[in-house]
# Entry
Amino acid sequence: EPEVTQTPSHQVTQMGQEVILRCVPISNHLYFYWYRQILGQKVEFLVSFYNNEISEKSEIFDDQFSVERPDGSNFTLKIRSTKLEDSAMYFCASRQTLTGTGVTEQFFGPGTRLTVL
Amino acid sequence: GQNIDQPTEMTATEGAIVQINCTYQTSGFNGLFWYQQHAGEAPTFLSYNVLDGLEEKGRFSSFLSRSKGYSYLLLKELQMKDSASYLCAVRPSGGYQKVTFGTGTKLQVIP
# Structure
């Protein structure tokens, strides 16, 4: 069964450093998302991406964040200068497209646990 | 704004039935999802409701009342592996499928 994959599974970095989190969405999916979940808190939407551009972003997704689809398979989240409060699990998700019933669900990857020291 | 409320924790007995409630107040409504999340893992899709009524899928059913801003997830014949957090998530009006999650209900199934 096709699945979303993410690398690395765990990333430890020093405050102020740049990190790039990588995702490979399901191959025939067209919509891509990043979410984060701080330990013990709810899943929070960061950004959605369609047709090679950001379609929607939350107030969390400030200038320190960027997303890119550098090739036909990868989808990346970059944090330019990490802060302690960026420590969280980051989930990538992808979705196919609208169907006759109106919507399809998002499939989540296993997540990357980011620890900022 | 978006506000989604769920009970924080619930406990139920193996083999029993449990109902997890969710109320929401959102700027527009375009569907409600239930996800299951085991500790340290990604959310996995359980159900989707956009029209009023009950959707049944095996041991899991989900109900929606749009006029009341209310949904529930019903789990039957509980198994120990059902111990997880259950996340209610709403898609507000709009075209790109952004989903707003509630804080989740941690369900513990006991023997």
In short: Chain A touches chain B at residues 31, 33, 41-45, 48, 50, 55-56, 91, 95, 102-103, 105-111 (CB under 8 Å). DSSP finds no helices and eleven strands in chain A. The first strand of chain A starts at residue 5 and ends at 7.
